[in-house]
Amino acid sequence: MTQSRHSSKGHPSETGTESGFLQSASLAIVVCAAMLTGIGLLAIYASSSMKGAQQFGDSLAFFRKQLIVAFGGFAGILVAQKLPWRWFEAMTLPAWAFSLGTLALIFVPGAYSVGGGAARWLHLGGVSFQPAELAKLTLIMFLARNLGRQNCDLRKFWSGVLPNLAAFGAFALCLMKQPDFGSTVLMGSLTVVMLFIAGLPFRYLAIMAATSVAGMVAAVLAAPYRMARLLSFLDPWAEVRGGGFQIIQSYLAFKNGGLLGTGLGESRQKLFFLPEAHTDFILSVIGEELGLAGILLVCGLFLFMSLIGLEISLRQRTRYRTLLGVGCTALIFGQSALNMGVTMGLLPTKGMPLPFVSSGASSLVVFLAVTGILARLARESASPAETSVPAKESHRVHAGKPAHQIT
Asked: Number of structural domains, the chain?
């Protein structure tokens, strides 16, 4: 299913067609990210003015910060296209270690600031950021590099599978201390997806699936607030002023929006009725002001971006780059799906920003970096140097087939 489908040598017209597609895909992935970021800036401008005025005395505080980060992020994408690829590969282990170090500071009293019942913001050198956002990307980088090795044999649990689970487990231990159950589940899902694509035997997948379900059930039962969220998700109207308040306000926003919306800036739910209107529930504001048409546009952009990312990944010539592309694509699709599921009442309420759209510098920087990686993968695979790689140097990836059988 996930085999790199194109041989390194082929008819010149076929090579030219593939190169043209990849060049177009590189541009398309950036355009999709730009459109989503633009929609996000409009929604942040419309939804955060009152909170900005109340909290900072500046109605444009959230919008201005997001705009500056967006310009810097897209400039970074352009710079990243010129850097030697070996530099990026060399950054993998240091980046993973940095992420683990920043996450581990949760065990140092006072290192993280507490907000909304969780400690997720770290302050270093006058800069505040959420280490969990960076950890998602560095985990993907680590797994791609480790699973992309030619001598990686996933038939062997201790030497092949365990190191990858340990990389995730170290992050999960720190995340659950915050606590950040949503990011833990997302990163665990990314780990399983990448192991599956790398050829993890199905018997291990079954064991991991059973263990994951048992772990999630235990986590819910161990924390009363998680059980309360689950119950309010099942029947939000039973706690109209409690756990069901947020999702009910989201329902009202979608209802008010109808087909074409109330108009940009005309949302009523953002007026302190809908908590986190500019972050976790920004899709509800988009739904109210732009209607079903706006929701379908956002969903369509995420779906199109995910399909392009998957196609770019499948056309890579090395295991490492295929896994890196699949991981980045899974992150975009997975986090956007989780956020949409929460705002539409399909999943229990959980703090998870909508990629590119929600207010938040940490999330935007990471997802623009993911965009840059996918664009770089497409551009390099379209270059003559990439298309001329001999077939014997192409390490394909088969989902569900042990890595040692892949040549």
From this structure: 1
